[in-house]
Amino acid sequence: MALWKRKTKTMLNVCKGLLHHRRWVVGFFALLTLVCGVIYPYVGVNYSMTDYLPKDSPSVVALDDMKSAFGGGTPNARLYAEGIDAAQAETISKELADVDGVTEVMWLGSVVDIRQPASVQDAKTVSTWKTDDGYLYQLTVESDKGPTALRDTRAVAERDGATRVSMSGDAVSTADAQQSTAQQVVYIMLAAVAVVVLILLLTSNSWFEPVIFLIVIGVAVVINMGTNIVLGEISFISQICGAILQLAVSMDYAIVLLHTFRREQQRYADPEDAMAHAMMRGFSVVLSSAAVTFFGFLSLTVMRFGIGVNMGVVLAKGIVFSFLSVMFLMPCLILMMLKPLNALRHRYLLPSFRRFAEVCQRIMLPVALVIIVCAVPAYLAQDRNDFVYGASGMTAHGSVQERESKRIDDAFGKSETWVVMVPEGRWADEQKTVDAIERLDHVTGVTSYITEAGRALPTAIVPQSTADQVLSHGWSRIVITLDVESESDTAYDMVETMRRTVGAYYGDDYRLVGNTVSIYDLRDTVRQDTPIVRIFSIGSIALVLMIMFRSISIPIVILLAIEVAIWMNLSVPYLTGGSLNYIGYLVIDAVQLGAAVDYAIIYAREYFDRRRTMNAKDAARSAIHHSAVTILTSATILICAGISVNLIATNGVISELGTLIGRGAFLSMLMMFVFLPWLLRVADPLIQRTTMFRIPSRK
């Protein structure tokens, strides 16, 4: 006891010391915020999904080898130029090849001699590249020059006579996301700030409280965004969602500290003493809440898929800065702004939640039974979603890009181009491989040394222009065109078939590159990541909850309520017949778990404080009454933030993630008011036997 008193006194003295030098504390945070605000624009943003694949993935190794040998990747954009003749088409092909950022151009002239009459050409080959209205070009575009290069290619086609230009492909989707993201981040943050201010005005008792909250959390957000410079670059998902999630998830830390200060003001006349005791009493509450959220986000870092690691680091780091900002900057600001804070006080605008608590208790049993009945189907459904893994999910419905993509597909059908690299010189094996590939379903064209020069023609006398396309650094390149849709089951089956076909002649001594090939490896990687992320997130949060409540059963009850909400959230796309981007599936698992556990801690603390003097039924009702404002405030902010992301973002992946966040926050909030209270009441005998503090046994 004496040791505890000494530690308490020491901590109190530290808090008083910080408050006494509050101008220095505020100055330090102001300087750090300024520096981070200046360096934030220099943080690189990566918009590619496949760049985050593990370096030892077969498709990554293959792409690296192809870039080393041939200096480029596979075609990642299609351009359809209408209203041009053969001469104009050839001119356009040459000028497209000169565009900075375009490393390769394929068109009809790449596979047939366009000087020959059309009647002697293979009709199937011609129809792959030409219609009565125009010509198709397949472009290989460097990712770091995508937006500029694609804008220039469109300008080239229009300048040389094309009456209509349509473009599609991964490079186009990525460039569109890159151009829109920076502007949309600003709009989303402005919408979020407006929502936060409105909600805080309704739930606070001073018109000045939202100002302090926004300054404190805003400082944490800017510091987090600026310190991303140490990561080199961040994914576009981290950029557009990191700030909004940090703002929404960590707002309740500030609410808890301010409410604690208000209570301490009733005990201590001196504001500095009241704040010092508020810091000391609120420290464990805020720390425990931040810790579970931190580990929820940190669980993403155990993934092999780099986007998860990147977002996990950004979000977990944001929680650390939010905690530091709330615990050290906010107390100093409150004391410095105490005069306007008190002068603008008003009565609470929201009514008492006593009636709300009574309603929750009356409907608790039937709603809990419905949730239990739905839990198993929701769990099964959420794993059976039709998942989208790559950039095709970025395209917004009804956008110009979607219309242009459909126009190209209507004219030429779905198409992908893959590359197989095999050792140069094994012409007999290459001939057998090419023959085997040409017999495969969905293969519409094959270009290689064998098809261009013939096996009997020595490489020494092959025209240099032909040799450069198919031979380099000991590799012979086979370019394959397929009539498959990217990220379809047919395309995934073709990856397995192609690897099996080429492997029959070359074993492992070959390389296969293509858009769906990379996404196939991405799919395998994230599927392996899923159970690891779940185990780490649930295990680490359960451990923190176990230490916090000194109980074995309480973490199980809390996590059960939260997991059911997550299952319900993720089952909606399956039940409605839609698809779900796998990034959203992985991220929401960690985000919803990290946010919902905050609500659960707020409610559980209120419940167990009252359970010491009340029976389980009364404690459940009273806990709802006293925790409702805090939970509703935090959850409503996250719900509105998700809705803002969904409405503003044109990137399909981000928009869908906003829907998942908003719906997940609503379901988690619902669980806190009806399902978790019921679970705690039902599990009350078990909790008494597995918890280290004494709870009265009366019913």
Automatic annotation (TrEMBL):
Residues spanning the membrane: 21-43, 185-204, 211-231, 237-261, 282-307, 319-338, 359-380, 532-549, 556-576, 582-602, 623-648, 660-680
UniProtKB keywords: Cell membrane, Membrane, Transmembrane, Transmembrane helix
Gene3D superfamilies: Multidrug efflux transporter AcrB transmembrane domain
One Pfam family hit: MMPL
Secretion signal, residue range per the UniProt entry: none
Domain Membrane transport protein MMPL positions: 52-336, 433-682
GO cellular component: plasma membrane
Localization: Cell membrane
Lineage top rank: taxon: Bacteria
Membrane topology term: Multi-pass membrane protein
Protein name per Swiss-Prot or TrEMBL: MMPL family
